[in-house]
Each structure stands twice: as C-alpha cells, then as structure tokens.
Amino acid sequence: xxxxxxxxxxxxxxxxxxxxxxxxxxxxxxxxxxxxxxxxxxxxxxxxxxxxxxxxxxxxxxxxxxxxxxxxxxxxxxxxxxxxxxxxxxxxxxxxxxxxxxxxxxxxxxxxxxxxxxxxxxxxxxxxxxxxxxxxxxxxxxxxxxxxxxxxxxxxxxxxxxxxxxxxxxxxxxxxxxxxxxxxxxxxxxxxxxxxxxxxxxxxxxxxxxxxxxxxxxxxxxxxxxxxxxxxxxxxxxxxxxxxxxxxxxxxxxxxxxxxxxxxxxxxxxxxxxxxxxxxxxxxxxxxxxxxxxxxxxxxxxxxxxxxxxxxxxxxxxxxxxxxxxxxxxxxxxxxxxxxxxxxxxxxxxxxxxxxxxxxxxxxxxxxxxxxxxxxxxxxxxx
Amino acid sequence: xxxxxxxxxxxxxxxxxxxxxxxxxxxxxxxxxxxxxxxxxxxxxxxxxxxxxxxxxxxxxxxxxxxxxxxxxxxxxxxxxxxxxxxxxxxxxxxxxxxxxxxxxxxxxxxxxxxxxxxxxx
Lengths: 383, 122
Known about the structure:
The structure holds 2 protein chains of 2 kinds. Chain A is of the alpha+beta class. Chain A is built from 8 helices and 19 strands. In chain A, the strands form 4 sheets. In chain A, strands 10-11-12-9-3-13 form a 6-stranded mixed beta sheet. Chain A has a 6-stranded antiparallel barrel with strand order 14-17-16-15-18-19. The longest helix of chain A is centred in the middle third of the chain and has 13 residues, at 211-223. Chain A is globular. The model of chain B has no long low-confidence stretch (mean pLDDT 95). Chain B has one domain: CATH 2.40.50.100. Chain B has a 6-stranded antiparallel beta sheet with strand order 1-2-3-9-8-5. A 3-stranded antiparallel beta sheet of chain B has the order 4-6-7. By secondary structure, chain B is α+β, with helices and mostly antiparallel strands. The chains are: A alpha+beta, B alpha+beta. The interface between A and B is medium-sized, with 25 and 25 residues.
C-alpha cells in the first residue's frame, strides 16, 4: 500500500493540545497541523454534523480587520469594493457577505467572508491565502485603511441542526441571528463575534474569540452530548455535498467568478449600468462574461457506480473521445447520500443538468451526469 | 500464519493459494473506506504491481501484489460493504486470493514480529 506522508514543521492552532487529547489524527494543512478526523472516523463525523451538531476548529483561517483611517466604515467598504465585485458599501452593520477578491485577468485571488462591525470591516480568508491577502490589501488599500491581521484570535464553527440549541444555552442572544447575521456576544466571559454561517450547508455559527478563551469554549460546547468534534475530512465531504467551493481546488487565479458559477456574488449594483458598476480588478472581463457567456462553467457531477472521481480527473464528451473538454476540481464521497459526487468545469453546452460526460480512472472510461448543486439541500435559517 | 509486506499488505497461505488484504495498521491510517476496486479473476501480477485500489472518504491508495501470481477469487462483498476492510481487515475484509507463481517467494515476506516492529517504529 502507498505510504502516508509525514507532518514536518507545522504551526499549531490554540486548540492543538485538545485535538491531540481527543484522538485527532493530525495532518498538515495550509502550514498547520490540523485534525483530519478524530477516533470515530470521517463517516460518523459527517453524519453527526447533519444529524446533531459538529464542532470544528477553523482557527487556521485568517481573520483580518480592515479599519478606515477616516473612522467611517463606509470608506473601508468603498475601498474594499475596488478589489472585489461584491456589494460591501450596502452591507449593513451586523451583516456578513461571501465575496471574491479578483485580479486584473478576472481570476479569483481568494474567496472570503466580509462582515460589517460598525466601525470597521472584518474579513475571514483562507488559511493558505492569508499572507497573500494581507499583503494585497495593504498594498492596495493602505491610503484609506489599516490592515490588521488578528493573530491572537481563534475561530470555532458549530454546525448542524442542534447548533442553535447548543449555543443558545451559553449565549441566549444568538437565537435572534439569521443566516449571515453577525453580532458581538460575551460567552463564558470572553468577547466573541458570532456569525450565523458556515461551510457545511447546515444551520450553524462561526465564533471568533480571543485565543486563550478557545479551550474553555470548546470544552463547554463539547460537554453537550449533542456535540462531537469534527475534523477536516468531514469538513471537506460536508462542503462538497453543499456544493461549496474550495479555494485552490475549485477556484484559483485563472478561474473567474462567472466560470465558477458564482455570479450570484456580483449584485446588480456592481454590474453594467449599476450604481457602482465595475471598478474592481478584471471588471471588464467579468462583466463581459456576465453578458456574453463563458467557455467553461463549474457544475456538479454524479459519477455512475461507486468509485469516487477525484480532483484532476479529465472530462470527455463521450465514451471514446480523446479530446479533453473539462476537469474535475473536487471529488469524493457524499456520505449523506452514500454515493460519490464531484464538481468540475465543463463547456457551457455540456453544463445543463442531465448532460452525460465521461472521465477516465485507472485506464477505464466512466460516465458522470451533470447534476444541480447543492447535492444536499442547504438548511440555513433565513427567518 | 500471516505474512506481511513493508507496504502494509498481509497474506495468508492455504496450499499454494494466498489470501491478500491490507493490515489493521493500514486501514487505520486510511480511515473509513467507501470504495474498493478489485482485480479481475484470472489477472496476473508481478510482485509489487498495483493489484487493487482502496478509497477512503479522503484519498485513494494502491494495494500492491505482495507476491507474483494469478488472481483466483475476489471478495465480492466489498462492493456493497467496503467498510468490512475497516471492521475486519484480516478476516471478512480480505481483498483477493492468488495462486502463487513461486510459493518460495513467501519466505521473503515479513513475519508478524518483524511487521509489528516496522509499524511500531513508524
């Protein structure tokens, strides 16, 4: 059997010792030692999150405060809008939004969450991109904003249908939050920022808190029998079922928001003839694609049979075509559906749900059917 | 008596037929299996050739033929229950059986004590 890789020199999150104590199998991820799973295994962890509540350490992600020099948050919002096609100026205090940093070629530099904290903006960015993002923000926005990476904060996600009941017992005010709301809350004496969001398709919360407060909160949440710790393995299978993108796999600097089927992150106000149309890197190309179409599009794919079709697998139009027309960018096993699922890029004329394409694994052709995303319906709490 | 490879396959001899699987150590490292690709009956492999693939939620790993020979049977039950490899790696989670090209080749494999030493050092 092929050998697993070793972990080497890696950073630790504030919860590292707890992961080890809980039997977490630590693996390298974006320069951190992170638990890929705990002793119960990925399948049980995945199902537990969908059935009750899963607890995730996502402290490896970057938390960056963007503080306007003027003291007016709208100035930070206007500045940030020069780097991304989202509506940040229209983001009210206490709300969060998913958006994309773009480059001049229209490619995606990172995907991130932005929330309005009243006097500043808070960005949550990918672990593997946080150094790049910080440098990028500083080089582009320093005139109007201070870019402050919050190195002393942890980030914990609580996800699943029982998440509300579990967190409410410690912080009753979180009950009032709706999907993509954010508020400050004092939990076990620590100043936390709680958003109703996540990366699983489930209702749930992400809690930013001072690093020293992370262990007590983790322990308190885990004390509830509805809560189990969940590693990166199930985090990945959960997000894949939810049709959510992984930066570096489904999104990268050569992929545009329109190709990635993330058009919905570009509101009217930033589109052609909108009030604040364009004005972000790659705007001409991206707005052109919104009007005129793209040459490839991200879709969901359901492989025939039981073999997972993983990232990198080539896509062909037919069983014997030799010309590759697309590629799988994420693939694995949908634990809740008990079938393999993938996401990938195909030409627009092959992007309609129901279209059959083919891949090749281990020298054999295998059919896949283009399928609507998400594979598992989201259960966000909108009201 | 079980014999082992450095690549974490095990092998159990019965006459000139060997039953092959992956070790408890290997299944533990891989995590929950969701798919097992088995060879065809009648397929011939040289020692170390890729004979099967086991896939967990996270990753795929190749299983090498521990010795040279011809596949005489595969564990059909794994199509529906790949988790058997996790639950009973050296029992009902076996992968395939082979008729050895050279039965003496088994003598070159690790015994349990040598394999345990290998994995406890890992």
